[in-house]
Amino acid sequence: MTQKPYIVDELISAKAIAARVEALAKEISTHFADTDKLVVVGLLRGSFIFIADLVRELDLPVEVDFLEASSYGNSMESSREVRILKDLRGEIAGRDVLVVEDIIDTGHTLKHVLEILETRHPRRMEVCALLSKPSRRETDIEAKWLGFEIPDRFVVGYGIDYAQRNRNLPHIGAVRFTEENS
Ligand code: IMP
Ligand code: MG
Question: Which of 57, 64, 115, 160 has the fewest CB atoms within 10 Å around its CB?
Answer without folding.
Answer: 115
